[in-house]
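Subject: for your reference before the review

Hello V.,

The reviewers asked for a structural picture of the protein, and I figured it would be easier to keep everything in one thread rather than splitting it across files. Below is the amino acid sequence we used in the manuscript, unchanged from the supplementary table.
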Amino acid sequence: MARRHAVCYTATTGYLFHTVVSALQARANTSPDTEIYVLCFGSGSSLEESAFQRVCAGSGITLLSVPRDRLNGLHPTYSRLFLDEFLPAHVDEVLYLDGDTQVVANIDPLVEAPIPTGGALGVRDPMVFIRESSNTLKKRIDGWWDSSGIPPGIRARYINAGVLRISRADLGGLRSDVLREYGDKLGLLHFLDQDAINLVLGKRLQPISMSWNFPGFLLGTQMVEIARPRIIHFMSDPRPWNAALPPWGVHYHQPYAQFVKDHPQTAEYWQRLSGRAKTKYALQQRYKHVTERRAHQSSAAARALRELERDTRDLG
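And here is what came back from the structure prediction:
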């Protein structure tokens, strides 16, 4: 029997708006046989969940309400480790995506990619190549990893957990290992469950191209040509649903505006910037665009990323 694949998101109330926009993009960029799930950890009875439940039901997406206490007191970011407990029994293979992503091209090769038992596919965190292009940033990043106990041997393969391709059968074991080995230290890990996933899976993580988890702050740089984005991950505030700011501009802000136009009942859940906050972030983004762009456009940064891209599994 053919294995059943699913793209899965997790969210809490307050985060459904942008998560459902990404899920709609995933629906448009996957085979009809692939199922799309959004698991909302909350009360199950909020007006927000009801509004998005109607949107999902009419769009080929399944929104599942899960009581937040099912996370056993853990921060919601750990919810990706519990997917196997709440997905329908027939789902065999999982592609987990963070809700602050945009799916901008077909992702079937990743959804359907075979993976070794006990392993997973992921994209190296941008810290991996950034530390190779700047000694100052290398010291800062290594300090974070030192505090979490990330061994030097896996730092070159350290993945960002916002895109994780894993078999459902392996999620339970991953969760058990994370909680057993780091349960009393999870709050001390600098990058929370991302650090824990890397520590537990280690060399069983197979790196794939940055195309599958492209950092939003690198839009408009030479990195777009080196690893053409299929999934874009907006990793820090502000984000494109907040305002049309650099480096993403109007183009990546538009999906949220169109979503509200198509589903006006969701407008009250759109978290937009205005007034002083918008001015502050506009100035911040312009400053970062000028100061960081020089580093991202450097030959050292391009060389570091090209070398890492050569050491990835080709998904076609």
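For the response letter, the relevant points are probably these. The mean pLDDT is 93. The two ends are 25 Å apart (CA to CA).

Happy to draft the paragraph if you're swamped.

O.
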